[in-house]
Amino acid sequence: MNGKWIWLCWSLWLAPGWAVETLHVVTEDYAPYNYLEEAEIKGLGTEVVEAMLEEAGFEYNLDIYPWARAISLARSRPNVLIYSISRFPEREDQFQWIGVIAKINFHVFALAKRDDIKPFSELSQARTWSIGTVRNDALEQYLMGRNFSNLQRNNNNEANMLKLLMGRIDLWPVSQESANYYVRQAGYDPSTLKIVHDIEDFTGGELYVAASLETAPEVIKRLQEALATIRQNGIYDGIVKRYR
């Protein structure tokens, strides 16, 4: 190989957008999709994202933060991936959307013993009660966008669950899977809670992995191809089955 060809190869490899860089991957505590256990970040979403990154061949650092900090990093720095994130119009232009990593449906929960809180058909009926939300997450923004002012903002859903159990909030909007996980972690049975409303017009029932806007298009393409590969070769389905 002559010297010019070697120089050209290295120039392409090191050119902006082509160099393989260490990615910073951020998430929040939102079990069972992503959560911290014995100093290790686990969960369905975590396993899917790590399998995608391994398939793509990228090195990465993975950190778990309060959601407000995680999403701020993903909005402001290059080469940042964020999961598990809901996709809706207000966020569409804030990230590069790599793909779906999990299905999800959201509900509004109350304590089963609260006979004064009956199931309701319209979300607007929840204005009567105090609602626990996670600061700056999609559900909180969804409620704020509908002019809800009866929100108690917290750093994570574990705090929401504890406040619900202690009677410090009345309602908790969250997925069934997450509610079950946090209640069991606190030593209670999921039957301690009841669903009083299904949130049907929110997010389309999907969680994504996304990248910051300054992440190179070549990186996005490679990650999208890797995500498609683990869906095709059975790795994705194997991960999902472990969390059913």
From TrEMBL:
Q: Which SUPFAM superfamilies match?
A: Periplasmic binding protein-like II
* The Solute-binding protein family 3/N-terminal domain, residue ranges: 22-244
Q: What is this protein called?
A: Solute-binding protein family 3/N-terminal domain-containing protein
- The signal peptide stretch is 1-19
Q: Which InterPro entries match?
A: Solute-binding_3/MltF_N
Q: Which Pfam families match?
A: SBP_bac_3
Record key words, sorted = Signal
* Species this protein is from: Aeromonas salmonicida subsp. salmonicida 01-B526
According to the entry, what is the taxonomic lineage of the organism? Bacteria, Pseudomonadati, Pseudomonadota, Gammaproteobacteria, Aeromonadales
